[in-house]
Structure formats: structure tokens, C-alpha cells
Specification:
This protein has helices at residues 15-24, 36-63, 89-120, 131-150, 158-167, 172-194, 197-218, and strands spanning 2-6, 9-13, 70-74, 77-81. With 223 residues, the protein is of the alpha+beta class. The protein has 2 domains: 1-131, no CATH class; 152-223. It has a 4-stranded mixed β-sheet. Helix 2 (36-63) packs across helix 3 (89-120) and helix 5 packs antiparallel against helix 6 (172-194). The longest helix is centred in the middle third of the chain and has 32 residues, at 89-120. It starts with a strand and ends in a 5-residue tail after the last helix.
């Protein structure tokens, strides 16, 4: 467990966050010592990118009067929470959008910087295969992929939070129903076209959690 403060926000990085990043970075494919560095670079890029994502949420909460804001990076990503102020539906939507937008903006800035650097350099310098470039390209990959993934309308991801804000509390069952359908479709498509189990497993987990939440809304005394 790692704890520190950033821009006044207490940040906690749980051990499972590193484990999931290592798995996504190809830790299972390590056979020689040379294979370790790309995984470590991916982990470093991933934690920075996801932290930037959560900072987008936290900073927007602060703008809207939130207090006691903290950030936690856990196995599947992270979250920012505030205990200081009730946010309106519109503010909730903007808070949910702020994370992916800041993450995409940072990823695109790094991508533009690399393109400009390549355009101004005279020929290959050999740095393109170096660890700094590997770190930056991993940062771009994580930033763009994670931001787009989070905008999928599956609760409680950012897209699901935005969907809940748009539909409102009276249509919370519809939010969960849409989340279940979208998660099933994304899980099947990711397995079919990306050949990855991890995203499909995450979508299965989302289906189960949204189904449980949907049942609670239908139970007496539920939401």
C-alpha cells in the first residue's frame, strides 16, 4: 500500500493496482530478464495515466465545492470521492467527463510532442527504441484506451455515471439494464476481435454487479 498527497489530495495505491497493470503489461510473458523492463515501463505509465484521470475528477469536485476529496487506485482502475458537498446532476456529469477528457488531453499532448520530435529530427537516432520512448508510447496507449473504455455506458464507469446523470434517479433501473446489455456486447466483441480475456472478464464482473443492483431496486425498501 502506497500513500501520498498530490495537489492536496490524499492518494492511496493498492497492491492489486500494480498486479493488474503488470498483467496488462505482459508479465505472464516474461521469460528472460530483458522482458521485465517493458512491463515495468508499462506499469509506470499506467499508474501515472490513471492518476491523471482521477485528478480530473478530483479537481472538478473541488471546483464545485467538494471537500475531503481523496483518490484511490485499486485493481481495476481508481476512483475519487468527496464527502463535502452534494453535487447536482449536471455537476455529476461534468465530474464524470473531466477524468477521461483530462486523460485524453494529456495522451494527445504527448503524442503530438513525439510526432513533432520525429519530424524535426534528422533521421533515426536510435532513441525510438529506448526506454523513454517506450514509457511515453505506453502512456499514450493507456491514456487513450482507458479514457475511451471509461466512456462506455456501463455503470459505475464514467460513461455509466453520465448515463445515470442524464436519465436521473427515477430511471435508475433503465441505467442498470442498459449497462448490462452494453457490457455483454462489449465483452463479446472484445473477445472476438481483440482476443483478450481481461476486458471480457471485467465486463462479466460489471454484468453481475449491475444485475445485483437492479435486483435491489426491485426489492421492497430498495433504491
Amino acid at each position: 500500500m502506497i500513500r501520498f498527497r498530490l495537489f492536496g489530495f490524499p492518494v492511496t495505491v493498492e497492491p492489486w493496482h500494480w498486479a493488474i497493470l503488470a498483467f496488462c503489461g505482459g508479465a505472464l510473458g516474461i521469460k528472460e530478464s530483458e522482458d521485465l523492463l517493458p512491463v515495468l515501463l508499462f506499469m509506470a505509465a499506467g499508474v501515472v495515466s490513471i492518476l491523471i484521470h482521477e485528478l480530473g475528477h478530483a479537481l472538478t469536485m473541488r471546483v464545485f465545492g467538494g471537500r475531503h476529496i481523496s483518490i484511490v487506485l485499486h485493481g481495476w482502475g481508481g476512483y475519487a470521492i468527496s464527502q463535502g458537498a452534494p453535487f447536482s446532476r449536471g455537476q455529476h456529469i461534468l465530474i464524470s467527463l473531466a477524468g477521461p477528457l483530462l486523460q485524453v488531453a494529456c495522451g494527445l499532448l504527448v503524442l503530438i510532442a513525439l510526432i513533432m520530435s520525429a519530424a524535426t529530427s534528422s533521421g533515426s537516432t536510435g532513441l525510438e527504441a529506448g526506454p523513454v520512448y517506450q514509457l511515453l508510447y505506453s502512456f499514450i496507449d493507456v491514456s487513450l484506451f482507458w479514457a475511451v473504455l471509461n466512456l462506455i455506458p456501463v455503470y459505475p464507469m464514467d460513461g455509466g455515471q453520465i448515463l445515470r446523470g442524464i436519465l436521473g434517479p427515477r430511471r435508475i433501473q433503465l441505467t442498470f439494464q442498459i449497462s448490462i446489455i452494453v457490457a455483454i456486447v462489449v465483452g463479446l466483441l472484445s473477445y472476438r476481435f481483440l482476443g483478450t480475456y481481461l476486458l471480457s472478464i471485467f465486463m462479466v464482473f460489471s454484468v453481475v454487479e449491475n444485475y445485483k443492483a437492479l435486483k435491489r431496486t426491485r426489492a421492497p425498501g430498495g433504491w
